[in-house]
């Protein structure tokens, strides 16, 4: 089954496996966690001796397929290898390819075109994908092989400041659960939009390894700080655009 506007040659749902090398596709489990499936058909993997450009981008919408070539063109221009996308607004979960990139997405299960996350991977690295786990419309995980071990990429889209505290706490609890299920030896990278204003107090920026800050700390700021302490985040970077256009944040 393909999404609207997608040809069977370009896209397939995550419960289908077509052609070698094939990643393992699994679905999020109950109680807010993700049920991982065993990896298979492992390729030699990403060569870590080469520069790997990883970024995140709130794209506002990828609900229509005609936007994909534009996105792929920009990622190619910036020489981005892997990107975490938020607010994609694509329902369900699936995979599609366009312009030299393969996109895995996870969205609303009821068909609504709101929220949504995705991970875009350069087609030259796509054979290194061994596992794809859509969790819900705010979290998904992709596991890749590299020359030394594995890499777990987690794309997120956190609730905005105006959402209820209960919803925010549920998001972070589910995110903690997903991260806890990542193999401990994996290189872990969390990408996405946490909808948090970091503030400009330098002592907090130094403590959390932030190189940029803006605005005033709020509820989302405190939740993000707590998440980083619990997960022992070693490095993070926040960039703020001077314009209204959504920036591409490079990790």
TrEMBL record:
Residue segments, region Disordered: 1-36
GO molecular function: catalytic activity
Domain Endonuclease/exonuclease/phosphatase: 56-197
SUPFAM superfamilies: DNase I-like
Bias (Polar residues) ranges: 1-16
CDD domains, A to Z: L1-EN (cd09076)
One Pfam family it belongs to: Exo_endo_phos
Superkingdom of this protein's organism: Eukaryota
Protein's name in the database: Craniofacial development protein 2
UniProt gene name: CFDP2_61
């Amino acid at each position: 089954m393909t999404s609207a506007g997608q040809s069977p040659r370009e896209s397939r749902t995550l419960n289908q496996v077509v052609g070698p090398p094939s990643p393992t596709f699994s679905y999020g489990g109950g109680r807010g966690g993700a049920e991982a499936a065993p990896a298979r058909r492992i390729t030699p993997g990403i060569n870590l001796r080469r520069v790997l450009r990883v970024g995140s981008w709130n794209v506002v919408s990828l609900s229509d397929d005609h936007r994909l070539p534009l996105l792929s063109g920009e990622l190619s221009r910036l020489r981005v290898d892997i990107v975490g996308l938020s607010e994609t607004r694509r329902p369900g979960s699936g995979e599609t390819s366009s312009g030299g990139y393969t996109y895995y997405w996870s969205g609303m299960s009821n068909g609504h075109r709101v929220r949504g996350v995705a991970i875009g991977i350069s087609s030259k690295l796509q054979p290194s994908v061994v596992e794809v786990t859509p969790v819900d419309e705010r979290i998904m995980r992709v596991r890749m092989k590299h020359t030394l071990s594995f890499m777990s990429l987690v794309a997120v889209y956190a609730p905005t400041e105006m959402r209820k505290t209960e919803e925010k706490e549920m998001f972070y609890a589910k995110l903690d659960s997903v991260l806890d299920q990542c193999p401990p030896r994996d290189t872990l990278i969390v990408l996405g939009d946490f909808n948090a204003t970091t503030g400009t107090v330098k002592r907090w920026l130094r403590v959390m390894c932030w190189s940029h800050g803006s605005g005033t700390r709020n509820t989302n700021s405190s939740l993000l700080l707590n998440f980083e302490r619990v997960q022992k985040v070693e490095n993070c970077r926040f960039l703020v655009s001077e314009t209204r256009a959504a920036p591409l944040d490079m990790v």
